[in-house]
Amino acid sequence: MKPQYAQAVVVPSARPSSGMGAISNKNPGRQERQEEEEEEEEEEEEEEEEEEEEEEEEEEEEEEEKEEEMEEEEEEEKEKD
Hints:
Residues 1-81 are annotated as: Disordered. The protein is an all-alpha fold. The protein has a domain at 33-60. It is built from 1 helix and no strands. The chain is rod-shaped and about 120 Å long.
């Protein structure tokens, strides 16, 4: 007696994979994750820009302080002469 095997039956899906009525988003969660990732990237970029601006402001303040110190030193030297 031969063993009986089930025969594979190919059933076409209800929606075509291409053309009119095709499934536009095969993975619906993917788009949401992609949007979340884009938002996170934008937030990170904004944070980086803010940090850069703060660093620039700090550098400018340091330069101004150095200039003031140099001016004070020059005035002191002039007073000594």
